[in-house]
Write a structure and sequence with these properties.
The protein is an all-alpha fold. Helix content is 77%, strand content 1%. The protein has 10 helices and 2 strands; from the N terminus they run H-H-H-H-H-H-H-H-E-E-H-H. It has helices at residues 5-26, 31-44, 52-77, 83-106, 109-129, 142-159, 164-173, 178-204, 220-240, 246-268, and strands at residues 214-215, 218-219. The longest helix is centred in the C-terminal third of the chain and has 27 residues, at 178-204. The protein is globular.
């Protein structure tokens, strides 16, 4: 029987495997699911309650750095990334994401939990309804893309998301082909994750008390096991996407997200 730390490592590994599979199956980043579950696991380990959500956000955001690398490579190989758009958005993404991490680090857990839950509800509703904005305008210039990147980065940092739930609708609205919108959102997710990981690490330094093996607001044991498992199961999910009715699974998964976020916010109050 597993005891002590090994039980928690197994829990992180199972969570990473679950999220990795659905990331491959549905094309999601996974942060919106990782955070509520990590909150439960960290709370069960009696981590400081005032920093449980911050640690979950920082750890989830850092996980996305590793999981997004393979996604970006795959989309680039299929020539589905508008690198001109990514280059224009990246400075704004970096500024917005770092600012969002600073704001998240300063917010008490309860207001931060409300902000997180609102955006999980939005993402779940988007998935349930399969919302796709109608193309009604062209891409803005450099300044517009910079501003869009800043807004997407700030919100993504607050909710530990890769930004696809915002980037894809914006690009689709601006007449970008859906395949390229998905690939470009995946590529834009990498600077979001990098800046978010750096931001949560820096903001968490000197915040105490924190559990052992943390780097700022990143809990390293959880990070390691989440990444290992998700890398293993994401290809399985991608293959299953060709044999499973994904539209039905999206609705089931959206309900799961809604319930998970609701339970998390109730427990934090």
């Amino acid at each position: 029987m597993l005891t002590g730390a090994a039980e928690w490592w197994l829990a992180y590994f199972v969570l990473g495997g679950f999220v990795g599979f659905f990331a491959g199956l549905l094309g999601i980043g996974g942060g919106l699911v990782i955070v509520p579950v990590l909150v439960f696991l960290f709370d069960a380990q009696h981590f400081p309650r005032e920093h449980v959500l911050h640690l979950a956000l920082g750890t989830a955001m850092t996980t996305i750095v590793f999981t997004s690398l393979s996604s970006v490579r795959a989309h680039h190989y299929r020539q589905a990334v508008r690198w001109d758009v990514v280059r224009a958005m990246t400075p704004g993404i970096l500024i917005g994401t770092l600012s969002g991490a600073a704001v998240a680090g300063a917010l008490p857990r309860q207001p931060l939990a409300v902000v997180f839950t609102i955006f999980v509800y939005y993402a779940a509703a988007q998935m349930w309804l399969n919302l796709k904005p109608k193309p009604s305008r062209q891409l803005p210039g450099w300044g517009g893309l910079l501003a869009a990147g800043a807004g997407i980065g700030a919100i993504s940092s607050l909710v530990a998301g890769g930004g696809a739930f915002l980037t894809i609708p914006v690009l689709t609205w601006c007449n970008v082909d859906m395949r390229q919108a998905v690939g470009t959102a995946a590529a834009a997710g990498l600077p979001i994750a990098l800046a978010g990981a750096i931001g949560y690490t820096l903001v968490g330094l000197g915040k105490g008390p924190l559990p052992q093996y943390t780097l700022g607001f990143v809990y390293l044991p959880a990070l390691i096991w989440l990444v290992l498992a998700s890398i293993m199961t994401a290809p399985l999910g991608a293959r299953a996407a060709h044999n499973i009715p994904v539209s039905a699974l999206k609705r089931i998964f959206s309900v799961f997200m809604f319930l998970l976020a609701t339970k998390m916010v109730v427990s934090l109050f």
